[in-house]
Design goal:
mainly alpha; about 55% helix; globular; binds iron/sulfur cluster
Length: about 100
Amino acid sequence: MPQLDGALCNANARSNYWLSYIEAEIEYAKSLCMECPAILECAVYMMEQYDDDAVPVGVLAGTSEFDRLELLWKEVDDGEGTNWSEFDRLISEGV
Ligand code: SF4
């Protein structure tokens, strides 16, 4: 979790929920993010990790790892000739 001024995750008794893989706990974390005064800085922190070729972990700026993976998948799926589209083809062909 980012160490940002006013971050609700760090001050919360259930801060482990931000790193959980249990849906109800993830949804709890995401809902608190929406009230967090540091959400914009958190989004910047998250994007900087992508810029550094790192994979952001846990709930960040109101998004879960699955949410971000789904967004990335849709973004890549719009393109043609990507590695991911080739991967899709192999899966659909049962290779
Ligand atoms: S937006 Fe969410 S993850 Fe980011 S600092 Fe706030 S509570 Fe933590």
